[in-house]
Amino acid sequence: MYRVLGPLHVSSEPGRVGKVPPGRQQVVLGALLLEANRVVSIEHLIDAVWDESPPATARTQVQICVSALRSTLAAVDRGDAISTRPPGYLLRVADGELDAHVFARLTAEAENLVRRGDPRTAAELLRQALGLWRGPALSGTTSNALLAKAAKLDEDRLAVLETSLDLELGAGRHRQLVGEIGALVAQHPLRERLRGQLMVALYRSGRQAEALEVYRTGRDLLIDELGLEPGEELRRLEAAILTGDAALAVPSQAPPVEVVRQAAPAPAPQPVVPLQLPADIGDFTGRAELVARALRLLEPGGRATRVVALVGKPGIGKSALAVHLAHLLVEAHFPDGQLYCDLGGTRTHPATAADVLGRFLRAMGIPGTSIPDAEDERAEMYRQLVARKRMLVVLDDAAAERQVQALLPGSSTCSVVVTSRARLTGLPGARVLEVEVLDHDEATDMLAAVIGPERVAAEPAAATALIRLVGCLPLALRIVAARLAARPSWSLAWMLERLSDERRRLDELAHGEMMVRASLALTYDGLDVESRRLLRLLGALDGLSFPTWVAAALLDVELMRATDLLERLVDAQMLELVAIDVTGTPRYKFHDLIRLFAREQLEQHEEEDERRTALRRVVGGWLALAGEAHSRVYGGDFTSLHGDAPRWRPSRSYVDRLLADPLVWLEAERPTLCAAVELTAAEGMDEACWDLAVTLVTLFEARCYFDDWERTHRQALDAVRAAGNERGEAALLCSLASLQLSWSRARAARDLLGPALRTFEELGDVRGLALARRNLALAHHRLGENELAAPVYLSALEGFRLAGDPVGQAYVLAQVAQIDLENGDQELAAGRLYEALDICREFGNQRVEVQVRYRLSDLMARQGRNPEAEEALTELLDVVRAGRDIVGEARVLHRLAVVKLALGDPGAAEALLRTALEVRERAMDHGGAAETRAELALLLAGRGDRTQAVGLLGRAITTFAERNMSAARLRAQQALDLIRAG
Questions:
Q1: Widest CA span of the chain, in angstroms?
Q2: How many angstroms separate the CA atoms of 878 and 60, rounded?
Q3: Which candidate, 71, 94, 583, 828, has a CA 20 to 30 Å from the CA of 747?
C-alpha cells in the first residue's frame, strides 16, 4: 500500500514497512506516486528535488535515488514496480494500492449514488474516503513542486468533507455535527461553505443566536483579513435565519440517520430501566473534535455492538469524558437504560467480570437467587436481557481486554464506552481513541470555568505559566483550579510560586480526594518489578525524548529486552512514544508530572550508587556514539582529544544503522547530547563531561552551532575546574580557542591557548600540544603575523606525525601552504596541498579535503589558470551545499566571485558576493561577512557605485575593529581612502 494522503508511507499486506529515508528519495517517490502509471521524465524529478538550482550531477543523483527506491520497494515485494521508460521512469500501481486512487474512486462512486437518489450510502462512502487521510498530503516534504500538488489534494479533501457534511445535514444529523463542523471552522475560518454548514446545524438544533454569531464572527474576520464582505450565499443564509425561513428545516424526504431497527418486543410489565450513570461535569470544556468523533462512532447501527475505548495516561480526563459522552447520547439513542461500573483496573484487586455481571443483572431486575454462579452463564443471561434493547454500557478503568470482553452486549442496538490506561488494542471491534492533554485554549477555558474568567483575565501571564507547569494535564489543572476557587484571596501568581519548586509540586497538586500522585501510584504499583525500576531510572534523565538504547544502558540489558519494557510503560500510559529515529526505532518521552513522580520513586527506592552506575552507562553510551560519529566524519579518531571515562556500546549492527549518516544523527540528537553535557556537569562526572563536550565540536563546527559550542564548554569548564581536572581544562580551553577563531577573534583565541599549552607540556600530551599549537598558529595567521605562524605550524605538524594523526597533518599542511602562497612560493605550496589531498582521500575525510581543494583553487587563480579555478570551485560548491556546510559555502562563493571578476564577468561576481554575504550573515559569521562586504565594495567602486562602496567598507571596518582583525581593517581603510580620494 502506498500512502500519500498524509506522510509518505509504504507497506505490504503482512505488515512489512518500506522505510524511505527523508530527503531526495522521498521526493522522487512522491513525484512518481503522484503520476502513478504514467511516465515521469528525469527533468521533472530534478525540478522536484532541486527546484531551480540543480547541481551538475543531478541526473546521476536521481538515478542513484531510483536505484535505492527499488531496493526499498523490494522489501515490500514491489522491487519491480519502478521501470525505466524514456524519458524517465514509470511506477506501476495496481488498483487499490495507492490511497489517493482509492479516495478518488470512492468519491466518484458517492457522486453516482447521489445522482441515483441514495445520499445516505453516498455519505457513508465519503466518510470512508475521508478516513484514508492521516494528515496533510505528503506532509514533511520540502519540494515546492510536490507541495503544489499536495495542496490540490488537500483542497480536494476539504471539498469532499464539505459535500459529506451537506449530505449528513440533509439526513437530519445536525445535532451530532455541530462539534465537528465547529472544529473545522476553527481550522479553516475563511471557508464560507463550512461556516454556512455550521450556521445551518446550529439553527436546526434550536440555537439561532449562536448561528447568527457564527456569521458575525466570520464577517468580521473576512473584513479584517481580506477587506471583503461575505459571499452572496452566506448573506442569504443569514437573512433566512433571521426570518425563520421554512426552507432551512430538515428536508422531509431525508432518509433516516440510523439503520431502521427491528421493532422492540413488547415490554414486560413494569420494566426496570437501569440509570447508573454518574453525574456529568457541569463545567466540562474542550475536546470538541474528539467528542464529535466519539459520538459518531457510538451511534448505534450496523450489525455489531459499537465499542469505543478511550485510552490515555493517568489524570488525562478519560472518566470525565466517558460520562460526558454518555450524557450526550442517552436521551436520543438509549432510552432503555445505562449501565455503569468502575472496574478498578488500577487497584490491587480489580473487579472480576463475574462480579460486574452480577451487578448489571441485579440492576436490570434479576433477583439474586436467579443469578447463576458461573461467569459464562451470567454473560449469557446478560446478553439475552440486553438483546434488541437500546442501552449504553460504560466500563470505567479497565485493566485489560479480558476483563471487558465478557461485559460486551451481543446486540447492534447497544453501544459501549470503555476507559483504560492500557491501550486495549486486542479488544475485538473496538475503536481506540487516544485522549491527549488539553491544548492551551482548552486548558484556559477549564481554568476560567472553575475560578471565573475575570481572575484569568486579570493575570493572563500567570494563567499561561500555570497551565504550562502542569503540562495541560486535566486532573492537575482541575486540582489547581479547585484550590484557587476555594481560596478567592489567592492570586494565580502565588499559586504559580507554590508550584515552581519541582520537589514540592506533587504535594501541591492535591485537593480533597483529588491527588495526582495517588493517580500515578495506582498505575505504578500495577507494573512488574523490572518495569518499575526502569521507570525510576528514567526519572534521572531530563525531560527530553530518548532512544531505545538509553533504557538498555540504564538496566544494562539487551536492546530488545529494553524495548519490551519500554512498550509496557507506553501501554500503561507512563511513557509517550513521540517519534521514530533514523534507524526506524521509537523515541520516548515523559509527561513532566510523570517524570517528577518517577524521580520521587527513584529517590525513595534506588540506592545512590546504583543510580550513578546506571547514569554512567547512559553517559558512556553517548560518549561511544558521539566518538564513533566523529570517527566516521573524519575518517578515524583524528584531531580530537578524549578522556578515560568508560564507554557503553550498543551492538555494532545497531550503531551502523544509527550512524549511517553521522552528521544527520549528531544533529538529530543535538538537544539530547547538549543536555547530557549539562547532566554530567551537574552530577560531577567531569571526565565524561569534557570528553563529550569536545567531541560534539564535530557537529557544532560543521553546522555552526556556536552558541551550543560555547554553552556546553562553559558548563564542562566549571565541572573540570571544580574537580581539579587539568587535562580536561586544557582540552576545553583549546576547543574554545577554536570557537573564537570561528568568530574571527584571533586575539581572544591566543589568550585562551597560553594556559592550555602549559598544561599539555607539563603532562607530555603530544596530541594536545599539536592541537593547541595548530590553533595558536591559526591565531597568528589570522592576525597577519605569518613570521610567527609558520614555525608554530611546523611544530604542530611534527606533533601530529608523532601522535599518528594524519588528518591533523593534512589540515596543517593546507594552512602552511597558504602562507607559502602569500610568500609567493607556489611550487612549495602545491607540494604541500597535494600531499594533504592524498591523505584526505586515503582516510575519507571530506571536510578537510574541501579545505585543501579550496586552497588549490587559490593556487590555480594565482597561476592565472582562472577557467580551471572556476571549474574546481563550481564542483566544490556542490559538495559543500550537499554537506550543508554553510561556512564552506560562503567561502567558496566568495572565492568564485573573485575568479568570475578575473574572467571579466562582474555581474556574476556581484551576484555571488551578495549570496555569500547572505549566507555568512545567516551563519552569524560576522568577520567573514565583513570580508565579503569589503570585496563587494571594491567591485562596486570599480563599476562607479562609490556611495554604496563607501557604506559597505564603513560597516566592514567597524566589524574588523570589533574583532581585532588588524590586517583586514588596514586593507579596508586603505581602500576606503582611495575611493574617497578618487
A1: 115
A2: 13
A3: 828
Whether the pLDDT of residue 642 is over 90: the answer is: yes
Cell of 29: 517517490
Helix or strand or coil: residue 245? coil
DSSP structure string for 442-498? HHHHHHHHHH-HHHHHHSHHHHHHHHHHTTT-HHHHHHHHHHHHH-TT--HHHHHHH
Specify which residues 309 forms β-bridges with: 418, 432
CB 449 within 8 A of CB 285: yes
Helix pair angle (529-538, 592-605), 10° resolution: 110
Does residue 779 contact residue 747 with C-beta atoms inside 8 Å? yes
Which amino acid belongs to residue 213? Answer: E
Would you say residue 269 has pLDDT above 50?
no
Which of 4-18, 484-498, 631-645, 750-764 is predicted with the least confidence, judged by mean pLDDT?
A: 4-18
pLDDT tens digits, one per residue of 178-226: 888 888 888 888 888 999 999 988 888 888 878 888 888 888 888 888 8
C-alpha distances in Å from residue 757, one per residue of 44, 295, 642, 734? 57, 72, 17, 8
As a whole number, mean pLDDT of residues 962-979 equals 86
- As a whole number of angstroms, the distance between CA 187 and CA 166 comes to 18
Residue recorded with cell 442569504:
236
**What contacts 605, CB < 8 A, 6 or more positions away?**
536
| Cell representation of residue 813 | 599542511
Q: How far apart are CA 449 and CA 320, in angstroms?
A: 15
Ordered DSSP codes for 929-952: HHHHHHHHHHHHHHTT-HHHHHHH
Do residues 108 and 121 lie in contact, with contact meaning Cβ atoms separated by under 8 Å? no
What Å distances lie between residue 343 and 322, 386, 474, 968, CA to CA? Answer: 14, 20, 21, 78
Burial of residue 430 (number of CB atoms within 10 Å: 0-12, 13-18, 19+):
buried
Q: What distance in Å separates the CA atoms of residue 963 and residue 930, rounded to the nearest whole number? A: 10
Residue bearing the bigger pLDDT, 548 or 596? 548
Q: Which residues in 263-288 are b (16+ Cβ under 10 Å) and which e?
A: eeeeeeeeeeebebbeeebeebbbbb
CB atoms within 10 A of CB 167: 23
Give the C-alpha separation, 700 to 743, whole Å. 13
Query: Model confidence over 782-819: pLDDT tens digits?
Result: 888 999 999 999 999 999 999 999 999 999 999 999 99
Beta bridge partners of 920: none
